[in-house]
Design brief:
about 290 residues; alpha/beta; Metallo-beta-lactamase, Chain A; 6-stranded mixed beta sheet; globular
């Protein structure tokens, strides 16, 4: 099975959202949608999500799933907005509960905030599968960047979220709470054990030095041969040393504070106050 894949690139966050269509029908799924957010004004916008919705409507598609590869720290999810417009069920990894427990404390969410993942329609574990029309999608648990990271393998395509980037850019950071460079290396080996011709679609691209165009599609074979962090059979101990040292120099993503509060709620905003106003919290010296 070779699913039809349409990519939507968000320049503000360097995120790629994917629409995956059953080539034999109208069923589709969306992976890692984006809700536009201007942090300086606190205003949201739906122009990125509206592009996906317009594509679905213009092509008479049936949206069955809104899939998250993990709880993103660099952009807000538009899953509930798209769901309200064109349907679909929202799914994420079962370890979302670990994220909710960790950041429920960081943001002092109190007892009203549910930490059981029930904000999502489906929680996936390793070995689960789902159907998109006649296409079967298999779920791989690929932690390391975060504890809840998943890879969705749909036919000849694997959607790896932030686990791997393009071969000339390498791999994801592992310094968020619950992250682990050792786990990331093991997860990458799981992905690289797929057939060499498997198409890999990455969740972000930042144009590595010397490359003029953004890119988001590669293959298992190309990653094994050319990935600057794990290619050519690089050893686990060397990867862990490199990744840990590199992560120690990185600053936090610009949108990490709003992203975590909203994405751990399946893209929903915090409850409004008695006047109907919505507020986000900024924890001091906690992240």
């Amino acid at each position: 099975m070779k699913p039809d894949v349409t990519a939507f690139f968000d320049a503000a966050t360097n995120t790629i959202s994917f629409l995956i269509k059953d080539p034999g029908g109208t069923a589709c799924a969306v992976i890692d949608s984006v809700l536009d957010f201007d942090y300086s004004s606190g205003r949201t916008d739906t122009k990125s999500a509206d592009q996906i919705i317009q594509h679905i409507k213009l092509n008479d598609l049936k949206l069955e799933w809104l899939l998250e590869s993990h709880v993103h720290a660099d952009h807000l999810s538009a899953a509930p907005y798209i769901q309200d417009e064109v349907g679909g069920k929202i799914g994420i990894g079962n370890n979302i509960t670990l994220i909710q427990k960790t950041f429920g404390k960081v943001f002092n969410e109190g007892t009203r905030f549910r930490r059981d993942g029930s904000q999502f329609d489906k929680l996936f574990v390793e070995g689960d599968s789902l159907m998109i029309g006649q296409m079967r999608a298999d779920v791989l648990h690929t932690p390391g960047h975060t504890p809840a990271c998943l890879t969705y393998v749909i036919g000849d395509a694997a959607f790896v979220g932030d686990t791997l980037f393009m071969p000339d850019f390498g791999t994801a950071r592992c310094d968020f709470p619950g992250g682990s460079s050792e786990e990331l290396f093991n997860s990458i080996q799981k992905i690289l054990s797929l057939p060499d011709e498997t198409r890999i679609f990455v969740g972000h691209d930042y144009k590595a030095p010397g490359r003029n165009e953004f890119a988001w599609e590669t293959t298992v074979g190309e990653q094994k041969a050319r990935n600057i962090h794990v290619g050519e059979g690089k050893r686990k101990d060397a990867f862990v040393k490199m990744r840990d040292e590199r992560d120690a120099t990185l600053s936090m993503p610009k949108l990490i504070i709003p992203s975590l509060q909203i994405n751990m709620r399946a893209g929903q905003m915090p409850e409004p106050d008695e006047l109907g106003d919505i507020f986000l919290k900024v924890p001091i010296n906690k992240i």
